[in-house]
Amino acid sequence: MPELSRRVGEFTDSVIRRMTRISDGCPGSINLSQGFPDFDPPKELLDALAEAAYKGPHQYSITFGAENFREALALKAAKTLKRTIDPEKEIVVTCGGTEAMMCAMMTICNPGDKVMVFSPFYENYGADAILSGAEPIYIPLVPPEYSFDISLIEDGFRQGAKAIIVCNPSNPCGKVFTREELSAIGELALRYDAFVVTDEVYEHIIYAPNVHVAAASLPGMFDHTITCSSLSKTYSITGWRLGYLIGPEDVIEAAKKVHDFLTVGAAAPLQEAAVAGLTLPDSYYSDLQELYTRKRDHFLAGLDRIGLKHNVPQGSYFVLVDISDFLELDEFRGWTDLEFCEWMVTNIGVAAVPGSSFFREDVNNLIRLHFARSEKTLDEALERLGKLGALLRR
Ligand code: GLN
């Protein structure tokens, strides 16, 4: 067989999505690996989707997004970005946040360009870097606060890094970057004439007293920031694959070309229907925040009762559970976190993602669970995890 691209040999499939397939193959297992809700999107979106089925559009939208979708998005994004957004010149609508991120990287990177990535990171960034020819420089986020050393970021920019990727709130550690942290990063990006590429798909899943600050909203930062986000988590529509990039005109002009040749465009009827989400009142977002706060508090209290050690996310719907105590037990000694997760799906009936897929460092003692599930499902998952906890108390 002729040789395949060497690039594709440099990364594996996504472990997050692999765990979902493994979970789907185990009847009855509760999938807390790949993060997506098991509840319905708002009724307004479903009604609009039904209407779009009959009224259309069913043909291509404008490649960089349907006009009414971009207009609604511009108005919504203006609130977080604290400036007016030009729907013609400053937005590209993509197939999910995944394409937005890939499109941003392909738009700004030349082969060999360095890009800073925090560790732990969302696993897509590794593949994004390889596919766009960039070389990652990893900046550790140090637990328990997941704080970082700003001098390492300055070193990265001094070495010529083109950009830094900031996932805020962070998947998988739930860190919400403070205004001060973002300002310090932004100041360096300006000083070294580099980009901040953000992934803000969890922007509305934030736990008080934390608040989400968009890097692009900071003074002088809009021209140096590419904001990537999606409607997936905000409106519980991960399967609709609607995402976007917002940035300065010159960047967006180039990103439009990349996006056009990658995918032509996001699904036209879904863009039409999603306008009903983008125009929901502000109360929708505070209700969503309350809903997830209840889920987080309920799930973490359950983990505490069972005696599973975990971090406390400030945002997103993920929690990292420490499995060190289990790896000390005879039956798990020498196991990898992946082996532990595979064992958990079949023996406990709960699917998790091995932490090693998020860390540059050699981390084998964490697993990631998500809690975007109904309370009933979370209770059932906790009941099963209770069997796991019991292993420590034999
Ligand atoms: N962000 C989700 C997660 O980390 C998954 C997103 C995806 O699979 N595209 O689980």
Description:
- The protein is of the alpha/beta class and 394 residues long.
- The protein has 2 domains: 6-40 and 283-392, Alpha-Beta Complex (Aspartate Aminotransferase, domain 1); 43-280, 3-Layer(aba) Sandwich (Aspartate Aminotransferase, domain 2).
- Helix content is 42%, strand content 14%.
- It contains 13 helices and 13 strands.
- It has helices spanning 15-24, 43-55, 67-81, 96-108, 124-132, 150-158, 179-191, 249-263, 268-278, 282-306, 324-327, 337-347, 375-390, and strands at residues 30-31, 91-95, 114-119, 135-140, 163-167, 195-199, 225-230, 242-246, 309-310, 318-322, 350-351, 353-354, 366-370.
- The strands form 3 sheets. Strands 2-8-7-6-5-3-4 form a 7-stranded mixed β-sheet, with helices on both faces. A 4-stranded antiparallel β-sheet has the order 9-10-13-12.
- The longest helix has 25 residues, at 282-306.
- It is globular, with a radius of gyration of 21 Å.
Order of helices and strands: HEHHEHEHEHEHEEEHHHEEHHEEEH
Low-confidence stretches: none
Present as ligands are: glutamine
Number of helices: 13
Radius of gyration: 21 Å
Count of distinct strands: 13
Task: State the CATH superfamily name of the largest domain.
Answer: Type I PLP-dependent aspartate aminotransferase-like (Major domain)
Beta content: 5-15%
Helix percent band = 40-55%
Main sheet characteristics: 7 strands, mixed
